[in-house]
């Protein structure tokens, strides 16, 4: 069965964005882009909340066509155009969207149905509100976290309104990047 893996940049104190949604503190460089690009290039399904999806949709479909496009822009734009996108939204309509499925109700049933299909793991990118909903329904199978060397003190927390303990198992695929970001991979321990 496919797994839902949450991919997120975090501050050391567990925030995914500043109090007003700021993400200018996130460190990304070519080393991280290359590393992440290799891993997600195997993925065939991306999961987003509405806000993150709209942000991605505003940039990635044409990112490779810009005169200033970087290697990362070209590679990720190509991947984005090919990957199946699943969007969690109660307000979006699935009219005219290419290679995109909108889930507006019966979240657990519909995501479990997608998990049963053939394919690679489903990567949940950013989307803190969607992530909170999935955590509360015990639908996330793993966490792929990039801990940034900063303490924000306040902002949008990654883990919010957790009702029960979630046991995790650290996977051996962790890495520290030159820019100071540390990657941590955890599997949810369901035993």
From TrEMBL:
<protein>
    <submittedName>
        <fullName>Dihydrofolate reductase</fullName>
    </submittedName>
</protein>
<dbReference type="GO" id="GO:0008703">
    <property type="term" value="F:5-amino-6-(5-phosphoribosylamino)uracil reductase activity"/>
</dbReference>
<feature type="domain" description="Bacterial bifunctional deaminase-reductase C-terminal">
    <location>
        <begin position="2"/>
        <end position="170"/>
    </location>
</feature>
<dbReference type="GO" id="GO:0009231">
    <property type="term" value="P:riboflavin biosynthetic process"/>
</dbReference>
<dbReference type="InterPro" id="IPR050765">
    <property type="entry name" value="Riboflavin_Biosynth_HTPR"/>
</dbReference>
<dbReference type="Pfam" id="PF01872">
    <property type="entry name" value="RibD_C"/>
</dbReference>
<dbReference type="InterPro" id="IPR002734">
    <property type="entry name" value="RibDG_C"/>
</dbReference>
<dbReference type="InterPro" id="IPR024072">
    <property type="entry name" value="DHFR-like_dom_sf"/>
</dbReference>
